[in-house]
C-alpha cells in the first residue's frame, strides 16, 4: 500500500508539473493553476503516507484524481478528428489502484471505488461528449498529450501490476514462514505494564511478537492480519492463551507478583469457535491459576454479527471468573443498547483518542464521555497509548487513573517487564498518591 501510494504521488506530481510548466510557458494560467493544485495533492499524499496515515492518503489521492480527471475529460480533453481523448485512460489506473490499496478495507469501499473508476472509463471511452468552453485544448496540445498520457497510463498500469504480483509473492512467503513460526518457537510474548487506580503496576497486556530467523522482528501489523485471514490465528491464539496462563502460574509463586493480571487479545475468529469457552476453561484448569487474573480483550468489531452468541459466551466466561474488557472502545460498531447487555468489567479508551487529547477538543470530549458512561455502567476504565505526562494528567483530571503506554514502558520481554514492575512499585509504595496527582 505504501509503495502504491508513494509511486502514485510521484507520477501525479511529475505529470502535473510537466503540464504546469507547459501551460505557464504558453500563458494559460488557469490550467497551470489546476496542475499546481494536483502537485499539492501529490505532496499531501506522500506526506500522509510517510507519517503512517495510509488510508487517509489513499482516500485523498483517489478522490482528488477522480474529480480532476472528470473535469479534464469534460472541459479540456474533448476528442477531435486530430486527437482522441486520452486522459480517461487514467480511470483504469485508479481502478486498479483502489483494488490494491483498499484490499483489506470494507468491501463497499474497495469495490465501490473501483467500480466508479471503471464506469467513468466506459463512459468517456464510449462517446465524444464534452463541453464547448474556452478551456478546450487545441490539437497542437492534445496530440502531444495523447502520446504522453497513454504512455504514462500504460507504464503506471504495468508498475501497479508488478506491485500486486510482488505483494502476492511476499504474502505467500510470509504465510509459509508463519506456518513454521509456532512449531519452531519463533513466537514470543512481550508484556506492557498497566497502571492501576492506586498508581502501582497491577498487570500487563500480553502482546505477540515474531522473531524471524532471517528477517528479525516482524511487526504485528504485518503478520496478525495475515494470521486472521488464513485462520492461523486459531492455533496461535490458543498458544498465546496458554503462555499467558503459564506466566500467571509462575507469578503466583512470588508474593511480589502474585497479584498481577494478564490481558490477552481475542480475535473475532477465535471467539466464533463453538468450543471457545471450553478451550479457555480447559487452559485455566490445567494451569490452576485464579481466573480473575486473566482478562480477555474483545474488540467492538466482534459485535457486528451474532451478538447473542457472543453475549452468551461472555456470560459463560464471566461465570467462570474470567475478566472481560472491551478494547478500542469508540472505534467500532457497538451501540449503547448492546453495551449495557455485555457482562464487561472494563473499557479501554483507544489510543487514537488519547494521542491528541491535549490538542483536539473532540478527542478530549470523547474521553470525558467514555468516563461518564463507564461510571454509570459501573465499569473500570483504562487508557492505552499514554505517551506524555500531559496526557496522563488530563486523564487523571477526568477520573481515569489506569493507563498503559510508552510513558511508563514499551512492551518488554518478561525479564525487562519484571524489572520495571519492581522499580515502579517500589516508587509508588514510597510515595503513595504520586501517580494520582
Question: What is the topological layout?
Answer:
Layout: H1 2-25, H2 29-50, H3 54-76, H4 90-101, H5 107-126, H6 139-181, E1 187-195, E2 201-212, E3 216-218, H7 220-230, H8 233-251, E4 261-265, H9 268-271, H10 276-287, E5 294-299, H11 307-320, E6 323-329, H12 336-339, E7 346-349, H13 351-354, H14 361-376, E8 380-384, H15 389-397, E9 402-404, H16 414-430
Parallel strand pairs: 2-4, 4-5, 5-6, 6-7, 7-8, 8-9
Antiparallel strand pairs: 1-2, 2-3
Report the order of strands and helices: HHHHHHEEEHHEHHEHEHEHHEHEH
Counting DSSP E segments of at least 2 residues, the number of strands comes to: 9
Shape: elongated
Taking the sheet with the most strands, its summary is: 9 strands, mixed
Helix fraction by DSSP (H/I, runs of at least 4):
55-70%
Low-confidence stretches: none
What class do helices, strands and sheet pairing give? alpha/beta
Mean pLDDT: 88
Query: Strand share of the residues?
Result: 5-15%
Number of helices: 16
Distance between the termini: 43 Å
Q: Roughly how many Å is the radius of gyration?
A: 27 Å
Amino acid at each position: 500500500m505504501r509503495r502504491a501510494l508513494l509511486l502514485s504521488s510521484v507520477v501525479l506530481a511529475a505529470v502535473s508539473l510537466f503540464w504546469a510548466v507547459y501551460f505557464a510557458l504558453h500563458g494559460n494560467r488557469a490550467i497551470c493553476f489546476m496542475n499546481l493544485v494536483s502537485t499539492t495533492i501529490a505532496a499531501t499524499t506522500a506526506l500522509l503516507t510517510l507519517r503512517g496515515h495510509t488510508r487517509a492518503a489513499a482516500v485523498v489521492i483517489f478522490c482528488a484524481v477522480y474529480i480532476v480527471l472528470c473535469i479534464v475529460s469534460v472541459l479540456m480533453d474533448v476528442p477531435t478528428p486530430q486527437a482522441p481523448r486520452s486522459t480517461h485512460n487514467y480511470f483504469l489506473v485508479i481502478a486498479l489502484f483502489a483494488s490494491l490499496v483498499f484490499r483489506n478495507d470494507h468491501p463497499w469501499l474497495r469495490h465501490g471505488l473501483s467500480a466508479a473508476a471503471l464506469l467513468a472509463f466506459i463512459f468517456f471511452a464510449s462517446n465524444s461528449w464534452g463541453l464547448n468552453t474556452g478551456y478546450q485544448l487545441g490539437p497542437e496540445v492534445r496530440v502531444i498529450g495523447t502520446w504522453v498520457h497513454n504512455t504514462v497510463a500504460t507504464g503506471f498500469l504495468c508498475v501497479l501490476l508488478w506491485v500486486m504480483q510482488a505483494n502476492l509473492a511476499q504474502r505467500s512467503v510470509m504465510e509459509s514462514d508463519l506456518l513454521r513460526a509456532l512449531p519452531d518457537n519463533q513466537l514470543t510474548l512481550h508484556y506492557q505494564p498497566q497502571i492501576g487506580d492506586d498508581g502501582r503496576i497491577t498487570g500487563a497486556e500480553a502482546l505477540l511478537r515474531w522473531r524471524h530467523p532471517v528477517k528479525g522482528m516482524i511487526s504485528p501489523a504485518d503478520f496478525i492480519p495475515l494470521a486472521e485471514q488464513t485462520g492461523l490465528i486459531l492455533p496461535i491464539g490458543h498458544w498465546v492463551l496458554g503462555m499467558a496462563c503459564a506466566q500467571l502460574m509462575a507469578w503466583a509463586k512470588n508474593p511480589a507478583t502474585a497479584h498481577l493480571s494478564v490481558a490477552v487479545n481475542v480475535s473475532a475468529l477465535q471467539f466464533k469457535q463453538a468450543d471457545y469457552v471450553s478451550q479457555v476453561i480447559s487452559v485455566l484448569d490445567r494451569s490452576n491459576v485464579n481466573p480473575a487474573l486473566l482478562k480477555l480483550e474483545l474488540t467492538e468489531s466482534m459485535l457486528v454479527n451474532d451478538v447473542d452468541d457472543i453475549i452468551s459466551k461472555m456470560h459463560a466466561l464471566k461465570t467462570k471468573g474470567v475478566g472481560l474488557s472491551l478494547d478500542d472502545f469508540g472505534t467500532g460498531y457497538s451501540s449503547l443498547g448492546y453495551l449495557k447487555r455485555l457482562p464487561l468489567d472494563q473499557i479501554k479508551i483507544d489510543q487514537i483518542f488519547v494521542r491528541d487529547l491535549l490538542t483536539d477538543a473532540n478527542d478530549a470530549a470523547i474521553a470525558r464521555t467514555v468516563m461518564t458512561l463507564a461510571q454509570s455502567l459501573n465499569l473500570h476504565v483504562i487508557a492505552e497509548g499514554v505517551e506524555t505526562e500531559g496526557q496522563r494528567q488530563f486523564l487523571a483530571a477526568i477520573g481515569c487513573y489506569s493507563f498503559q503506554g510508552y510513558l511508563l514502558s514499551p512492551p518488554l520481554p518478561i525479564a525487562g517487564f519484571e524489572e520495571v514492575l519492581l522499580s515502579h512499585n517500589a516508587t509508588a509504595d514510597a510515595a503513595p498518591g504520586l501517580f494520582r496527582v
